[in-house]
Amino acid sequence: MAERKDPYKNFRYLVEIDGIAQGGFSEVTIPDSTQAVIEYREGNEPITTRKQPGLIKYADVTLKWGITDSLDLYKWRKLVEDGKTKDARKNMAIIILDEEGKPAARWEFENAWPTKYDAPDLKATGNEIAIENIVIAHEGMKRVK
Fold this sequence. Notes:
The chain has helices spanning 72-81, 85-88; strands at 13-17, 27-29, 33-40, 50-58, 61-66, 90-97, 103-118, 131-137, 141-143. It has 145 residues and is mainly beta. The protein has a single domain (13-32, 59-143), classed as Hcp1-like (Pnp Oxidase, Chain A, Roll), CATH 2.30.110. Strands 1, 2, 5, 6, 7, 8 and 9 form a 7-stranded antiparallel β-sheet that branches. Strands 3-4 form a two-stranded antiparallel ribbon. The longest helix has 10 residues, at 72-81.
C-alpha cells in the first residue's frame, strides 16, 4: 500500500527577499508560468498546423500585509521610482511550511523588482487592519522543492 501524502495547507508560508526583513504577509500570490504557442503551416502540409513553443511569460508576485512602521518594502519600490532599477533587482523565494513548520515546498524568483505599491485604504468607521500591498515582476520562476 502506498504511503499517504496529505497536501500542504495554504496558510503557513514564508517569503524571503534578499536584504529585506519583513515580519509576515497576510496574502501571497504565487504566479503562473505560461508559454505562447506558435502555429505554423507550410503550403504542402495537411490542413492542420504544427505547434511549437514560443516565449515564456511569468505573472507577477503579489504580497499583502498589515501596515507597520517598517519601510523596507516601500524603500525597495522607491529605488525603482528613482531610476535605480539595477540596485532594486533581488532574488526572492516563497516557501510553504509543513505541519511542523519545516520548509515543504519552495519557489524561487530571479531578478525581482516591485512594479506597484498600494497604500492602505482608510475608513473612520471601519474595523479592519490597514493593508499595504506590492506587486513584484521577475525574470524567472522555478519550484526547487
